[in-house]
Design brief:
The chain is mostly helical. 77% of the residues lie in helices and 0% in strands.
Length: 121
């Protein structure tokens, strides 16, 4: 499916590496990617940050990081990494609201990939 490869590369992800994780099956990949918008870890991260519960925020961000990495969603992965590392270090004074906004924006872009593939394909 050239459409997925094109959309994926335009998004900023490594198509070949990601497809190798899914045994070359774009169908399986798209099925898993379609679950992304229903994942609750973005909401958990937001709630934990607002409550100042940094251990819970770290857990949610770390889960998002793993999911983004496995799905090859490089821009989302990078945004989440920028949040995970200060949370891991319990960095005082970090502007988590700004970091979360970046994660939120990239999550939205990543979740929109399924629709983009449908439009192109």
């Amino acid at each position: 499916m050239a459409a997925l490869k094109e959309v994926f590369q335009k998004y900023g992800a490594d198509y070949e590496t990601t497809m190798s994780r899914f045994m070359g099956s774009e169908q399986i990949y798209l099925k898993i990617l379609a679950m992304l918008p229903r994942d609750e870890n973005l909401q958990k991260l937001d709630q934990a940050l607002q409550a100042g519960d940094y251990p819970a925020a770290f857990d949610a961000a770390h889960t998002l990081k793993g999911m983004a990495g496995n799905l090859g969603l490089t821009p989302l992965y990078q945004a989440v990494c920028a949040t995970v590392e200060p949370l891991r270090a319990r960095a005082p004074g970090e502007d988590y609201a700004v970091l979360f906004q970046s994660v939120k924006e990239e999550f939205k872009r990543a979740a929109g990939l399924v629709e983009l593939v449908k439009e192109v394909g």
